[in-house]
Amino acid sequence: MRIRTGYTIGYDTFGPTPIIYQLDVHPSRAHDLLTSDEMRVDPPVPIRKYTDRFGNICVRLLSPGGRITVSADFLIADTGELDAYAPDARQIPVQDLPDEVLIYLLGSRYCDTDKLAGTAWSLFGGAPEGWARVAAIVTWAHERIRFDYQLADATRSAFDGFNQRVGVCRDFAHLAVTLCRCMNFPARYCTGYLGDIGVPVDPNPMDFSAWFEVFLDGPEGPRWYTFDARHDARRIGRIVIARGRDATDVAISTSFGTALLAQFDVHTVEVADDATTEPHSGARSRASSEA
User: Fold this and answer.
1) Out of 2-6, 218-222, 237-241, 274-278, least confident range
2) Nearest 5°: phi and psi at 28?
3) Domain assignment of residue 290, yes or no
């Protein structure tokens, strides 16, 4: 299947303002791109790309002041398959984990494991091990938090979400990631596109989405598996942009100076095989960039 995807994001800046964006498709999906996802910048300014410590593509630029708008519109191929399902996947003992995944057992800015470790073990210590225990965490987090775009809070940690019981995609992911880490499952935060493919259309404005991955030993050996506490369901058509410890590592934009969000449009739709990249008019807008 083919998915048409992209964004238009504008900020009002007040004097020269450095900005880092993470909006390029993750290198692991680059081979699926059918057209370029190259970022367009208005007004045109020099950009420089680099790869961060987690393997994500970052774009640096200096806004000259005033409105700065970045956009992209591209086609990407997808298998059309649901997220992988491996109910027999087992948990890997910490001593046997690869060195590079150990960082995803540790607490981080939004995943305050020290505050939820006792809760995690009291809730899930008796659950079946492996995939089933992760699934129990996902369902519990899904039911614990009430989704509400209007109550997005960029400072809300997993512990805050646990107590406030409200949030957006990132809050579901942070809570589930934190509980998994407390139970010694390496878990990493993901951000990307997730359109309403194979499910009823969501009436909320289109946005980037947040989910997470857990490192388990499945039928094909140790690998990362996708889980989604926001929807508690396997989905079709995820397009990952970035992975990291939590939302800090995968922010769609980080400005070093005042940058007020002025426009935020995202589109992710399945299209016919003969689709082109004529200007897209089906994006849904919203007023903030909290997924």
Assistant:
1) 274-278
2) -65, -15
3) no
Whether residues 234 and 203 fall in one domain: yes
pLDDT of residue 282: 47
**Could you tell me if residue 291 is inside a domain?**
no
The answer to whether residues 99 and 180 belong to one domain is yes
pTM over 0.90: yes
Residue 57 and residue 76: Cα distance in Å, rounded? 17
The three-class DSSP label of residue 21 is strand
Copy the structure tokens of residue 260: 């007020």
The answer to whether residues 2 and 194 touch, using CB atoms and an 8 Å cutoff, is no
The percent of the chain in helix, strand and coil, each rounded to the nearest 5, is 25, 35, 40
C-alpha span between 252 and 47 (Å, rounded): 16
Q: What one-character DSSP code corresponds to residue 35?
A: S
The total of structural domains in the chain comes to 2
The parent domain of residue 58 ranges over 2-79+250-285
3-state secondary structure of 271: strand
Mean pLDDT for the stretch of residues 194-220? 93
The confidence score (pLDDT) of residue 264 equals: 96
Contact 215, 186 (CB under 8 A): yes
Report whether pLDDT(116) > 80.
Answer: yes
- Statement to judge: residues 117 and 238 lie in one domain: yes
Same domain, 276 and 204: no
205 confidence band (pLDDT: 50, 70, 90): confident
Where b means 16+ CB within 10 Å and e means fewer, 177-205 reads bbbbbbbebbbbbbbbbbbbbeeeeeeee
- Are 61 and 41 in contact by the 8 Å Cβ rule? The answer is yes
